[in-house]
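Exercise 7. Given the components listed, write out the predicted structure of the assembled complex. Treat all entries as one system.
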Amino acid sequence: MNLTKEEEAALDGKHGETLALAYRTLLAIGEASGADKLIPIEWAHLSGVNYNTIGDAGEQFLSHLSKDAKFKVKTTVNPMGFDFDTVSKYNLDDEFIKKQESIKQSYEKMGAIPSFSCIPYEIFQVPNKDTHVSFAESNAAIYANSISGLKTNKEGAFSALASALTGKSPYSDLREDSNRLPKLNIRMKVESRDELTYGLLGYFAGKVAESSVSISGTRELDKRSCKSLCAGMGTSGRCGMFTLGEGEGEKIDFDEKEMKKVHDELNTSESGDLITLGSPQLGLDEISDLSSMLKGRSFTKRCMIFCPRAIQGQVRKMGYENEIKRAGGEMLYDCCICLTPLVDKKDVDSVITNSVKGAYYLKTSNEVDVNLKSLKQIIQEETK
Amino acid sequence: MTLKVIVRGKTKGTILVSKNPINFLGGVDKKTGRIRDEKHDLFGKMLANKILVFPYGVGSSVGAYTIYSLKYNKCAPVAMICLKADLTTASGCAISNIPLLVAEKEEYESLKDGQEVLVDAIEGKIL
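Answer.
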């Protein structure tokens, strides 16, 4: 890879150990992806914020890093493990809370915007088309490339961190127009369409596609289905982008049989003791929809609803939070389903969700069973 | 055979071959290095001190922190060899100083489970 004199100097440690580490990381991912240069990026979105995901190793790493590191570009961050405002209602040990606080402080000290959200594309103003960004959260990277018109690779936690520290990223893969052309076409053959169907399609697509895929047989996606598709795709594979419509290359069908296979892989229970909604976190439209669906109904089980802090003001002002709470829902900000310590296998055996991504991590990380069904079905079966 | 060096280093160990891609965040226990995804072909296997040979990493970007945690908890592979290096694996290995190589298909397929090898991730050789 060709580095400028300035970049070489930073790599050699002339501007401190932190920047040397950041450039070493950029160099490694540049080599891995066949880049020949670094280019500027305008916005980094970091993952690795929840103590449950990064552990003591991550907490100490960030604490050490934040002693002298500062982010060079706009930097936003993923959800934490819980909501500090309501954590006292949950039976969470003090050690976890202390470590989460330390991680939060480290990111803020380095200059991150305390967004704690996995849907940056929905709560921040999106830059001009074709702007290079560096998004680590997989659903956000796919959404940015496919819907927002931005350019990013499906970054790793440390590659996005290195981008935040340097304002740069290797020029490779989905940053180059020629690689953004899908080489595989998936034909959507499933008749009934909802966010669950699209989440399952995404999970299937992630397994069969390489870096970019086209999806035909569907013209338009509502936001809920679109987010679900991005999250499913990001969970199962390394594909970082999709386009809608006919595409070049090999064609594969996603039919009822394929869908059942994916559903059977992720659905491990026919019922559950707790409902979780919000992976990716729910935006204002989805909260508004949910509160309408709940008019005159109440959950028959506990239900946790995850959304970004950025929409809290409106959620309250519009009366949505009151309506959801009246129906028995618990509103949680700054966190999401994935690896939240608030879902503990000591208290629950199985969890109901409409999120394919949530299902994967609930099963593998929280080690609970999952009843995966659509939001419509959840409202029908779990409220009265 | 010559392989592409992503993260430099030299080490030796026993090869552990994974047929499936690896989702480090969901699929590996960061405190023990045990594969905990029941659907994975290496379910129950330990990664500690192995030369981990796998096609590529998938899933959450936070997997890079899992790799760092494995190193911190002394249960990381001593080196990794991939068919295609994804950014999560590459950046995780870079921060954790775990040698990482990318092999061409033919070379990759010649690596057998249980083989004792010397990994030279400076010259890009496996002996």
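Discussion: Chain A has 16 helices and 14 strands. Residues 17-33 of chain A form the longest helix (17 residues).
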